[in-house]
Amino acid sequence: MASQPDRLADRHRLAQVAIRAATVRSLLALWDALIDPTDLDATTPVWLDAAMAVVLRRHDESARLAATHIGRTRYAQVGDVGPTPPLVIPDSEATAKALLIRGPLLLKSQMTRLPLDAATRSAKAAQAQAGARRALTGGRQTITNAVRADPAATGWRRTTSANPCDWCASKAGQVWATDADGGDFFQAHDHCGCGAEPLYQ
What we know:
64% of the residues lie in helices and 8% in strands. It is mostly helical.
């Protein structure tokens, strides 16, 4: 039978995956509603504003979910919820850049070598995955930052989805100590369903 920390970890991972899926659905719908592939210059600004609103809202949801999870996990492991961790402030500039690069700019590039329909489908999917990655940054960084600041924490480990890519599978269970260089940075890619799980003494 799984331990309570393991059950909490699995529940949290699934909840974050649900945020990711909801983000992707919203961004796909916004692309269809607002982007005109034949008039990108006129339709991109309105789409970007709407897409940013979705990603930033989901970023906040991911961060709040992670903050609650930290308290529950800390209590299960050391018997004390500890201080409420600060939520990560979203990087709006990086988010906008990711959406533009993986959306309209990718479409413009691919239109030179692919039929319009194929180029549009590719960019539509790519921008949704990029936005979902930026949304889950809220939860991932809330956890990595919190364990770095908590004397009771020993670090965090990487949890993966049920069917991770080869790179993520090779990192599954990897533990970052709180004093390790780069221990507060979570590497994720588009389509990534991995998460950070706090560890305590």
